[in-house]
Design brief:
The chain has one helix and 20 strands. Strand 10 and strand 11 form a beta hairpin. The chain starts with a strand and ends with a strand.
Length: 238
């Protein structure tokens, strides 16, 4: 799963933030550097700015973003297209070709492309405008319904799961704990979006969390072609 992780979620009066990005099996444990991602920052005024060239550092990618004014900022990998692949149906499930198994004899193969997006929100100074929380209106998104930089342990937080700007009901999301790497409880919570596409998740203790949503859909105007979306949101409860 992809992630972006800022050096701090509350930067105080700092005017710049460093972030790392990677693909990983466990929350915030980098394994594969994120290449060719259009990294961006959305400011408190809603303006989106592409980040300067990034640095590949082995198993992670490093980028820096300017935070010129007070408010909430969205740091993002941007929508990244992965390599095209093939998949086929086995019962009610889609199986990717090359994931340790050969396709069934006579299975009808279809094209699929992985699309990934990783977001995180940081606060400089006072929160002020919430324009950075507005959805982009395309692909799979997780929209915080509240201030994502003010979450506390034991509280419930609400998020909207959106596809092309519209609510996506019936989608399962998973919340991972970074501290689960040490105590074995990696999953903090799961939920399924309601008719309005909304989920409520609870952070059991202080620390950093990674929320994951996946959605697979046919590609419009392209027969036998699919897109597989994976979106994450990193945040801190403290």
């Amino acid at each position: 799963m992809p992630y972006v992780l800022p050096a701090q979620f509350d930067v105080g009066s700092r005017t710049q933030i460093t972030l790392e990005a990677s693909f990983a099996e466990d929350a915030f444990r980098p394994e594969v550097a994120m290449r060719d991602a259009p990294f961006e920052v959305t400011g408190p005024d809603g303006r989106i700015t592409l980040l300067a060239p990034v640095t590949l550092a082995g198993d992670r990618t490093i980028a820096e973003a300017a935070l010129p004014i007070d408010g909430i900022y969205r740091l993002s990998s941007g929508q990244r297209a992965g390599r095209p692949g093939k998949m086929y149906r086995k019962g009610g499930d889609w199986i990717m070709v090359g994931e340790g198994t050969a396709p069934l004899s006579g299975a009808a193969l279809v094209d699929v492309r992985s699309m990934t997006l990783a977001d995180a929100y940081v606060l400089r100074g006072r929160s002020g405008s919430s324009a950075a929380l507005a959805p982009r209106g395309k692909a799979l998104e997780i929209q915080p319904l509240g201030d994502p930089t003010a979450l506390v342990p034991g509280s419930s937080a609400r998020f909207a799961i959106l596809y092309d700007g519209k609510p996506l009901p019936g989608q399962t999301v998973t919340l991972f704990r970074e501290t689960g790497l040490y105590d074995g409880r990696k999953q903090a919570d799961t939920a399924t979006s309601d008719r309005a596409g909304v989920v409520a998740l609870t952070m059991p203790d202080a620390g950093r969390y990674l929320m994951l949503a996946r959605y697979r859909t046919a590609t419009p105007h392209a027969p036998d072609s699919y897109a597989s979306f994976t979106t994450t949101l990193a945040f801190e409860a403290g």
